Each structure stands twice: as structure tokens, then as C-alpha cells.
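Justification of computing resources. Each target in the renewal requires a structure prediction run like the one illustrated here; the chain below, 319 residues long, is used simply to show the kind of job we budget for.
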Amino acid sequence: MLRSVQMGNCREALQLTKELLMYTKILFPTDFSTYANTVFSCLPDLKKLGLHTVVLLHVIRESGVPMPEETRRADLARVEWSAKEELNIAQMALQGQGLRAITRIEYGSPVEQILRVAEEENVGLIFMGAQGKTLNEELLVGSVTYGVARQAVTPVLIQKAQTVREMGHIQCRLVCEQLFTRILHPTDFSDCADAAFQLIKRFKDAGTEEVVLLHVQDERVMRQRSAKQIADFDREDTDRLEKLCRTLQLFGLKARFMLRHGHPVAETLKAADEVNPSLIVLGSRGRSAFQEILSGSTFENIMRLSHYPVLTTKCIQCR
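Resulting C-alpha cells:
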């Protein structure tokens, strides 16, 4: 009995240590675009979470166009040399901010290589840029980002920026600069939503001033319930939300909640516009793989359509 208790305490201590070290080392994939360079400027802000090492990654896609082997090698060598120069500049910029930087160049599918490097480097966070509603020619960047967010077992922080074309050039402007000031956390009370909630509890040192919890009663489900059942659900979920608020207050965070009825995606986006969060924190799998607020296409649509940065994480069961 004593042995099992000691083992349990060791596991808890190990988990706590792992959580405290979560953001000391992160992965930043970049394609050196104006958009990526704008998001890059946010990295020093993560020092408030304990960041001291950044892995800078550039993935080179090999051309699918047939060409002589000698030409192909020369072309790849030219691209790799240019990428090394760009990474060296980024590395020096981070070192000037007091951060350690590691540079890596890989070949192949961006999503596959980003996930592989994240695992090899044992990073606690993948930090990427991705447009929300954007220009057609820029959607490829988004497809890589969302591919990583769907498959990564590591938390993924997606920074959003507004893109504007001026005189043929793309200008980017960050939607927000202080990433952790006001958090919106949509929850369905599932284990994976709880995994996201556990992250939020540690955000006080990052400058979080307020956390807004959101639960949406799905109208597609509620229309099949009686008025009494809906009232019972509302009462039960209000109690859950109040309990979560009290927990956050114990961690020194100001918290309030919103309970809505409607379509989960629409209500989440509407609530975000009302709250104006600096960051939306999501669990990436809900109670069901088919029809819950944070599962499948609903989770993906919130990531894609939100104007605000999004932090996603998976629970252990979903990894």
C-alpha cells in the first residue's frame, strides 16, 4: 500500500515537473514569408512562460517537376544556402533577445517534418502562424498549420495576423501583441477540454488578467429535449462552470463564464467577438469524434475562422 502511494506521488511529481518545463523549449517552423516574420516577432514574449530555447525549422519541399539530377542538386543546394542564411539571421535576432536558438533544415512534407522534429527535439510547444480568412494564394500556409494542429501531440499555438496588399506587397499586422492577457476557453467538460484548462491554470505569470469560460448547448441536440431537461442541463452546466471559475481564482486568475445555446461554431465565434480575447485555448477532441463542440470539423472551423490566436492541446487519451 505504502509503495503504491509513493509511486503515485512520484508520478504526480514527474507530471508537475513536465508541466513546469513545458514552454522552456519550443519549435518555430518558418517559410521566411512576411507573415512568418511578423509572427516571429512574438517569440520573445514567451519568455514570460519560461522560454529559453527556440528550434527554428525550415522545410524544403522537393520539386515534383522532372529535371536532370545535376540541375536538381544545384537547385536544392541554392535553396538550402539561402535558407541557412535566413535561419542564421533569425538565430542572431533571438540571441540578441537572450534566447538560445537551434536551426534545422529538413526535406519533405512540411507537416510530417514539423511533427517529426517536434518529437526529436522534445519541445513543449509548436508556435506557428496562420491566416484566418485570407487570400487564396496564402491558403497553403494555413493548410500546413492546421495539418500540424490536427495531428500534433504537442500543444500548438497558432498566431493570427491580418494581411493587407499594398502596391503589390503583402503587409502583415498582428491581431494582438500580448498573447495571454485575456483567455477565452470553450469547454464541453470532456477530458481533452480539461487538458486545455490545466494549461490555463499556469498562465498567471504570463500576464493573464482574465479568463472567460464558454459552454455552448448544441441546438441540434437541445431541440430534442423538453423544457425541463434543458433547464436541468443549464443548471448542471452552470454549476460546472462556476466550479471551474473558483478553481482559476485559487490560482490567482480573474474568471467569469458564459452559457450559450445555438450552433457551437457560430456561438463560439460570436462570443469571441464580444470578449475580444488575446488567445482562445481549445482541447482538440470533445466527448465524441462525431458531434461535440470541440471535435472534428467544429474544432477545425474554430481554428480556421477565428480572428484570434488559438492554442490547442490534446488529452493523453487522444494522443
